[in-house]
Amino acid sequence: MEHKNSVVYQIYVKSFYDSNGDGIGDLNGIRAKLPYLKSLGVDYIWVTPFFPSPMFDNGYDVADYCAVNPMFGTMADCEAMIAEADKLGIGFMFDMVFNHTSWDHEWFKKALTGDPEYMDYYIFRDGVDGKPPLDWTASFGTPAWEYVPNLDKWYLHLFDKSQPDLNWENPKVRDALKDVIRFWKGKGVKGFRFDVLNLVSKPEHLEQCGSGSGASYCKDGHRIHEFIREMVTDTGIENMVTVGEMASTTLENCIRYSNPESRELAMCFNFHHLKVDYKNGDKWALMPPDLAQLHGIFRQWQEEMSRRGGWNAVFWCNHDQPRIVSRFGDEGEYWKQSAKMLGTFIHFLRGTPYVYQGEELGMTNAHYTTIEQYNDVECINYYKILLERGLSEQDALEVLAQRSRDNSRTPMQWSAGRNAGFTDGSPWLEIPANYSFINVEAEEDDPDSILHYYRTLIKLRKEYPIIAEGEVRFLETGNERVFAYERSLDGQRLTVVCSFSGQNEAANVDLKPGTLLLCNGASDQMARLENGTLALRPYEAFAVLN
Ligand code: GLC
Ligand code: CA
């Protein structure tokens, strides 16, 4: 399948490039930067939602699935963007937010008037003694049910209250969503990303669920495989590039979602590897990453998926995650080495790699120090919750500085010029000071830059089939800070070694002389090998082909 050999680039439209000086990235901005993406070598671009929206969740609250938010441009801009990418051989993947709509969507507006047909598009229930039907919390830290006085009913929202959940049990809802897919397919879109897709099938006996996180009762629900297959086969997107965002899913389900025999999706996102620095599973409690756990998760998922015909998206970064170099790497002395090491680790794994805008530059967290600098609903809610839990303002701000989604949403750093070359106006979100040296222009000029390294990573995938198609096996290195894995295809072997450590390390690696495909430092690994023990430099990474 073509998607195995592809690399996807994710654009957060609001922060990519502003073409008209209003401080907000837009579709013409994406079009203007297509040559840059072509030069990077990516095959697909996933663009985050740019549809009409009140923007309570920055566009993941969609008011109209088949139109363009004037803030981002017009339908003509969108068509021009698709056509231009097409000429360059780049396909667009649009972001389908089908678990919920915005409360501004016409379906929900009709539901609120008491129209029974549209009330059945959503999940309305009676309360119990003036309280919600269930004691559920939503993902952004609020209760998951909202009361509507004129209906005397409550509706479910697993995210913000402005994002009411759709009722997928209603076939009219499923059909209406299929029409959305057909609409964008008709515009020449080449693939789709489905937002929190594994939450759409709600429990059969909703009223009987216990209390706690609403999403935990809805994930991988009893009709989920049926719903996905129906949506995909009815719209004829089986052979397109599709990826489902799967919240807290299982390996078992991901194999089924992505195994071609099930006729569901091309691949899945899951997030277990991005929770290894959550203290007691709490995103808002800080802890250094547990590298042994990280290693275990990758080993298990990679090997099982490989053995049983599943396929994953492989990634570190997106618009919901803090920047990886700030998180598992080093922003200081080893900024370049660690960013390159993290890229190496992902790009040689089995799966389709995703690059999130600015990752290819080694962009860092935002380093905001006041609550006013933040924009995202989730972190603003949690700031209040952390203060209620008794944290000082300073400690709460430290948590946000490491965990807020705004860390990845700062504008793309194009140059050392005004506003990092992102806009002529005033940017909607503050730009980190390090744009003076972390930017596209500076990295184009530096042959040793992270940007050039990512170009090489992407190019190698096209040159060596073993990267896209090989089996994968994790190796024991005897050092939990040094990860190594082996890919194999038709008697060929590719060994990848990555040190997640800022110190010199020693690790057991069965290394044989071969072709060094790339490395992020000196290429004298063989000389540093003594009786099967390799001396590694901080954040060293390399790949050898035998
Ligand atoms: C997904 C999106 C996130 C959004 C949420 C609700 O997780 O990636 O940005 O807030 O779904 O739509
Ligand atoms: Ca703009």
Tertiary shape? globular
Average predicted local confidence, pLDDT: 97
Radius of gyration: 23 Å
Catalogue the ligands. Answer: alpha-D-glucopyranose, calcium ion
Question: Could you explain how this protein is built, in words?
Answer:
The chain has 546 residues and is α/β, with parallel strands linked by helices. It folds into 2 domains: 2-103 and 166-457, Glycosidases (TIM Barrel, Alpha-Beta Barrel); 470-545, Immunoglobulin-like (Sandwich), CATH 2.60.40.1180. It is 30% helix and 17% strand. An 8-stranded parallel beta sheet has the order 11-10-8-3-2-1-15-14. A 5-stranded antiparallel beta sheet has the order 16-17-18-23-20. It has a 3-stranded antiparallel beta sheet with strand order 4-7-6, with no helix packed on it. Helix 12 packs parallel to helix 17 (450-463) and helix 13 (377-388) packs antiparallel against helix 14. It binds alpha-D-glucopyranose and calcium ion.
In brief, what are we looking at here?
By secondary structure, this protein is of the alpha/beta class.
Write the layout of secondary structure elements.
Elements: E1 8-11, H1 27-32, H2 34-40, E2 44-47, H3 75-87, E3 91-96, H4 106-112, H5 116-119, E4 124-125, E5 136-137, E6 145-148, E7 153-156, H6 171-186, E8 191-194, E9 212-213, H7 214-218, H8 224-235, E10 241-245, H9 251-258, E11 267-269, E12 278-279, E13 282-286, H10 291-307, E14 313-314, H11 324-327, H12 335-347, E15 352-356, H13 377-388, H14 393-403, H15 406-409, H16 440-445, H17 450-463, H18 465-469, E16 471-475, E17 482-489, E18 492-499, E19 505-508, E20 515-519, E21 529-530, E22 533-536, E23 541-545
Parallel strand pairs: 1-2, 1-15, 2-3, 3-8, 5-9, 8-10, 10-11, 14-15
Antiparallel strand pairs: 4-7, 6-7, 12-13, 16-17, 17-18, 18-23, 19-22, 20-23, 21-22
Helix pairs in contact: 6-8, 12-17, 13-14
The structure holds alpha-D-glucopyranose and calcium ion (CA).
